[in-house]
Amino acid sequence: MRGRLLIASSLCVALTSAAMADVGVGDKAPNISAGAWWNLPKGVSRISLKDLRGQVVLLDFWATW
Amino acid sequence: MQKKYNAKGVVLVALSYESTSLVEPYVAKHGIKYFVGGGAESSKNAYGVRGYPTMFVVDPDGRITWKGHSITDAEKAIKQVLKENPPKKVSSLGEQAAKSAYKKASKLYKKKKYSAAFDAYEKTAKKYKGTKYAKKAKAKLKKIKSNKKIMAKIRRAVTKKKCENWLQLARALAENGKREDAIEYYERIIKKYPDSKYAKRAREEMAEI
Q1: How far is B98 from B121, CA to CA, in rounded Å?
Q2: Residue whose C-alpha is closest to residue A58's, from B89, B32, B26, B69
Q3: Interface-testing mutation among A20, A60, A65, with chain B (most B C-beta atoms within 10 A)
């Protein structure tokens, strides 16, 4: 019984940490994507970090609340 | 701060996991002019973001040099990167898009696909109006238009494309018993390009249906 509980809980931890990567200083910045974009320049439909290579990017994760 | 660093090759990208219904009114209400992405749930997860705001500074090589929550610290981190690993380009996304469109057109031109190149230059000039490469495309179009040989080649290519398309349509219509409609297309060719080989073909085929 305890063995099964241990397996279940470690599986939970493994799953959540897989969904939430931890990325820090020195790491390669993961690519970005969004369902919708605003204020893009004419002719540009989306942004990826590849497009911005060679520039300095300030990524700001925010929420309306 | 954004304007101050834009000219130095710094780009701000603001990402929210929230839906368009929340993000759009917010952007409008606050008159936000920088790049905003909504529905960015997978990015938020990829970066391990748990609270807001969480900011990252990414250097010109695509590496994270700073992570934090304070805009003051973000600015310090930006100044540091600008010093230690300055941007290789300052151009905006629009300029980059225009540049690659222009280069595609130039490739076609080099391959002597003049009609396709002409269309591609025209598209570039129109779609990216106001950019440096749109101006270059306009200048290139002017040059092409003054070249009689190339313009003749372009005209022939356009004629060929149009006529072959109309012949195909006419034949398909004729096959489906739509004689009147087929004739309309044959006559279009004859009217517009009366001395061409296509007009000859059109007359021949029209006589047989």
Answers
A1: 10
A2: B69
A3: A60
CB contact under 8 A, A64 and B45: no
H or E element that contains A61: strand A56-61
Q: What is the CATH number of domain B2-84?
A: 3.40.30.10
Q: B64 contacts in A (CB within 8 Å)? A: 23-29
Per-residue exposure over B170-198, b if at least 16 CB sit within 10 Å of its own CB, e if not: beebbeeeeeeebbebbbbbbeebeebeb
Does domain B151-208 fall under CATH 1.25.40? My reply is: yes
- State whether A21 and B65 contact (CB < 8 Å): no
B contact residues 23-52, partner A, Cβ 8 Å cutoff: 23-24, 26-27, 32-40, 42-50, 52
ipTM above 0.90, yes or no: no
Q: What share of chain A is helix, strand, coil (3-state, %, to 5)?
A: 35, 15, 50
- CB–CB contact B15 A35 (8 Å): no
CB contact (8 A) between residue B44 and residue A59: no
**C-alpha to C-alpha distance for B167 and B184, rounded to whole angstroms:** 11
Task: Give the 3-state secondary structure of residue B126.
Answer: helix
Model confidence pLDDT, tens digit, residues B32-83: 999 999 999 999 999 999 999 999 999 999 999 999 999 999 999 999 999 9
Tokens coding A44: 């540009």
